[in-house]
Amino acid sequence: MTPPHNTLWVKICGIRDVETAEIAVDAGANALGLNFYAPSPRSITAERAAEIVESLPLQVTPIGLFVNHTVTQIEQIMETAGLETLQLHGDETPDFLADITENHPLWNIIWARRVNENDIADVDDDLRECDSLGVKLFACLLDPKVDGAYGGTGETLSWKLVARHYDQTTNPPLILAGGITPDNVAEAVSSVHPWGIDVASGVETEKGVKNADLIHEFIDIARSEIQTPSNGPKP
Q: CB atoms < 10 A from the CB of 57, how many?
């Protein structure tokens, strides 16, 4: 799951079929997001996710995206789909993450935090609480907070704000998300120098419909940026 040294980790989120997964793999994606949040236009069933997972080469990691699911629901979907990495993108607390870790210590957890200028400074405190509870996060994903939405809105974060407040030397590896497109991904990477980057709507022609050309263009441009990687997960 860890990219080569000096290579940006890229996740294409909201994959709904094998054909699109193959396009993302061919473009060089490190990970594919499988969305189990039913209200999302990008959501899929665990059974469909299993078909995608089975089609992937070993070097590409499938990641299940959950929003306010119960532990039992997460366990059932993860087992059916054949997943070992999950992204919690709702209102989950450090205590909830601790429960997941206790029951499934081998799972990789990405904690998505939806933030704005008023609460981004709280991320450090929440990450320290996770650490105190024995939760070793694979990464922390930052996404803009939009009322009534749980990601995929096309809105962007203040990259300068992220660069100023997120300590990449002590915190888990940073994945940047939110409104990133082929047109602005170079600026996002050069402004924040994240370990990884996540895109959904930025490579779509309409909600839930990925575009092959945009996927290739996005990854090519993102990887062309010279960057200093943060403390990414160890192999």
A: 7
CB atoms within 10 A of CB 143: 25
Domain 9-224 has CATH 1.10.40.30: no
Read off φ and ψ for residue 37, nearest 5 degrees: -90, 105
pLDDT for 164-218, tens place per residue?
Answer: 989 999 999 999 999 999 999 999 999 999 999 999 999 999 989 999 999 999 9
- What are residue 203's phi and psi, to 5 degrees? -125, 30
Any idea where the domains of the chain sit in the sequence? Answer: 9-224
pTM tops 0.85, yes or no: yes
d(CA 80, CA 123): 32
Q: How far, in Å, CA of 174 to CA of 176, rounded? A: 6
Q: Which sequence positions are flagged as catalytic?
A: 13, 143
At residue 104's C-alpha, the angle toward residues 120 and 106, to 5°, is 85
> Rounded to an integer, what is the distance from CA 174 to the centroid of its chain?
10
**Gap between the terminal Cα atoms of the chain:** 8
Strand, coil or helix: what is 69?
coil
Other beta carbons within 10 Å of 124: 14
Using an 8 Å Cβ cutoff, are 192 and 162 in contact?
yes
Q: Which of 111, 110, 135 is nearest to 123 (CA)?
A: 111
Tokens 């922390």 locate to 140
